[in-house]
Amino acid sequence: MGKKETMSLGFNRISRPKSLHEMAYESLKAGILSGRLAAGRVYSELELAGELGISRTPVREALLRLAAENFISFNTRKGVLINFFSRKDVEDLSELRQIIEEAAVAKIVGNLSKDQIQTVENIISKQEECIRGKYDESIFLEIDREFHLFLIEASGNKFMIQTYNNIRDYLTITFRKALTEKGRGIEVLHEHKLIATALSQGNGEMARDALSSHLTRSKLPALKYHRAIKS
Questions:
Q1: Within a 10 A sphere around the Cβ of 216, how many other Cβ atoms?
Q2: Which of 94, 115, 178, 228 would staple 221 via disulfide (CB 3.0–4.6 Å)?
């Protein structure tokens, strides 16, 4: 006799619930990326546990993970320090970002499918809607990340994608303040449009120049912000 066939009952598989330390990690990291947990400020584990409404043990586990990723440092006497990215950090991240993104754009220009070009245009449309509506910095920043990540992923280079994913949270922290400058959101949208136009036309020189200008204009306010903090 053959094996008895089993028929699916149509239930969704139950996923394993997240542990407390995983949820604490996600909440604390989101606080760092958004700036709610301020760079350079010291927090106690007890304070953070109280804010999250959980015990110190899962918070400690989450903090150890964040420390390994260089988002925080432990101060044995005072508590947990949210790491501050220095001016040199901004310069170094900008340099690495430019190398990766310029290489990706050089590879994809003239080679994007119609669907991929449509994807770029859809991202631009979302940014326009964000600008026209009640401007939300966090939403605009997420769309900005989506735009730049598309450029890298379209390259098809898995090591380039992995490297970019490893630094994109640091980029969010260092460049977030640049988007708070008055009018910068509109400028970013215009710069993205120039890059998208060059990609749709398969114009390599225009794409390279538009991207280089965009990354430079994004770095300058970030450096200005870090000078202000240092002073």
A1: 11
A2: 178
Q: Is 151 exposed, middle or buried (0-12, 13-18, 19+ CB in 10 A)?
A: buried
Q: What is the pLDDT of residues 60-102, one digit of tens each?
A: 999 999 999 999 999 877 889 999 888 898 899 999 999 999 9
Contact 194, 203 (CB under 8 A): no
- Report pLDDT digits (tens) over 13-59: 656 678 899 999 999 999 998 888 988 899 999 999 999 999 999 99
Task: Count the neighbouring beta carbons within 10 Å of the beta carbon of residue 43.
Answer: 19
Query: What CA–CA distance (Å, rounded) separates 43 from 182?
Result: 31
SS3 160: helix
Q: CA-to-CA distance for 59 and 13, rounded, in angstroms?
A: 29
Euclidean distance between CA atoms 207 and 201, whole angstroms: 9
- What are the phi and psi torsion angles at 124 (to 5°)? -60, -40
Domains of the chain and any CATH numbers: 20-82 (1.10.10.10), 87-230 (1.20.120.530)
Residue 110 is classified by DSSP as: T
